[in-house]
Amino acid sequence: MFLLLGCNDIQDITEDREKDYYLYLYTNDVIYNISKDNSYTSVAYKTLPLQRVYWTSPDSFDVYHQGIKFRYSIINYSTYARQDGSGKQMIYLDKTMIDKTLTIIGCLDTDYCIESNFDVK
After folding, report:
1. Which residues contact residue 55 at a Cβ distance below 8 angstroms, ignoring those fewer than 6 apart?
2. N or C: which end of the chain has fewer CB atoms below 10 A?
3. CATH dotted code for 22-120
4. What is the pLDDT of residues 68-93, one digit of tens each?
5. For 23-72, what is each residue's pLDDT tens digit?
6. Domains of the chain: which residue ranges?
7. Cα–Cα distance between 77 and 55 in angstroms, integer?
């Protein structure tokens, strides 16, 4: 005996989810203080309340520890937006980045990423 139930009013929940996704990144060009070996700037963002944003960048910096070179992205990890959907994440800078255009990427999932560029002067 088989029992089959159906409903003609099925919604594709992934389609609705993608309509609700949005992420705006706000970065400014940076004037680097050359008296410092390294520094930080930040990216501000706006998205859904309490939305998790994952961060990455094709740009990196090197750290030598006990003769071993470690390479790290200038922006890492993830952050959660505040109740109003705003947030901020720090970006590492050093002297080697002066006169370059750097890129950061914020992702809400593997298929929804936004890129932002800024110059270090």
Report:
1. 73, 75, 76, 77, 78, 79, 89, 104, 105, 106, 107
2. N
3. 2.60.40.10
4. 999 999 999 999 999 999 999 999 99
5. 999 999 999 999 999 999 999 999 999 999 999 999 999 999 999 999 99
6. 22-120
7. 6
